[in-house]
Amino acid sequence: MEADLPARHRAIVLGVTGSIAAYKAGEIVRLFRKAGVRVHVVMTPAAQRFITPMTLGTLSGNPVTTDLFAAETGGAYMEWGREGGAADASGIRHIQASRESDLIVVAPATGNILAKVAHGIGDEPLSTAILASSVKVLFAPAMNTRMWENPATQANVRILRERGFRFIDPEEGDLACGEFGRGKMAEPSVIVDQALRILGPACPDLPAVLVTAGRTEEEIDPVRYLSNHSSGKMGFAIAEAARDLGHPVTLVYGAVSVVPPIGIERIEARSADAMLRACAELSPKHSILIMAAAVSDYRAAARSGEKIESGRKDLRLDLSPNPDILAALASARGATMTTVGFALETGGDRARAREKMSRKGCDLMVLNDPTKTGSAFGADTNEVVFIHPDGREESLPVMKKTEVAREIMQRAAKIAAGKKRS
Length: 422
What we know:
By secondary structure, the chain is an alpha/beta fold. It folds into 2 domains: 11-199, Rossmann fold; 209-421, Rossmann fold. The chain has 13 helices and 21 strands. It has helices spanning 25-34, 53-60, 93-100, 111-118, 125-131, 145-149, 151-162, 188-199, 233-244, 272-282, 325-333, 350-360, 401-421, and strands at 11-16, 38-43, 103-109, 136-141, 166-167, 171-174, 180-184, 209-213, 218-221, 224-226, 249-253, 265-268, 288-291, 298-300, 319-321, 338-344, 364-368, 381-382, 384-387, 393-395, 399-400. The strands form 6 sheets. Strands 12-11-8-13-16-17-19-20 form an 8-stranded mixed beta sheet, sandwiched between helices. It has a 5-stranded parallel beta sheet with strand order 2-1-3-4-5, sandwiched between helices. The protein is globular and about 70 Å long.
């Protein structure tokens, strides 16, 4: 379940308080572990009325702290701390865990926990752990609208913000009490995304990776555009693989059919020109470029400002070539950047893929054929051939795109390391 942990194991404390939104804590734990982050759960007594410690202990793989003076509950015991130092089974492990974590996330955060932390009260394991820790704290409040808007709660939020505590404000929606208003906890993916951004890359000294994904859309008129069938899955999988291996990652993506990965700096660029501008600006800060986006080869020579009338029999559409983003960036950066390109060729034309690699100046070309079984647009699998500048070819069997992404990242990182040594 847990991603391969990089050299520096990131660790968080997840504080769970007494709100109906506590049932979402299991999904929060799952997303953290998927991103390779260790999780130690600390629960208030009220939280245990909504979700059991055994559930969160099983999902986190760590004992759950439930009481100031009792041993933890649930989960296979794992040594805690980046140095591998395990605490004993006494009731102070919540303090050690909070001190050895990189971040404390409180989700859901009730008005009660905000009040206690704002005024220095520590009368259960979570508030005590926060008071005893100097790491950053991220609150994701969840409560009735009137509770959230109460002047006392807002005063406590202001106090905490002034002291450097972070917040993901509650959303507007249907509440458990039957009312509609602001007070709904943000979705788990939003919470984990913000937390991962605060944590930063697991290994900031590794080469920074710039990934493009999705398809571009070249407008013909206000309602029509030229594009292709790319879903964005392959590029997103590469960005996630780079993140999980500890690299700093930036993702530039066009139109997609799937949800972008969390915990990654993301920039949307819907057209080829927009993607080129974004990548050109970001390129100097990155050592590896993986160009997985399916950029439209052409755009309308002249975009119509009005919708083109339907039914015309004499309609003619003049096209102009789009910029070659990969070739432009490879030329600008030269040997200082490792570039990986994709050649999508029906029929798997390897000679054409080699020609593209040479013309664009790539360090590695990934060839795939969308007409082959297992490599279709939008599929969860892919079958690729790696083509190297020295003529070597590596054919991989049909694999999950997450597995292909890991293979691509391993080769890109190896090429980048070789350039650095030379």
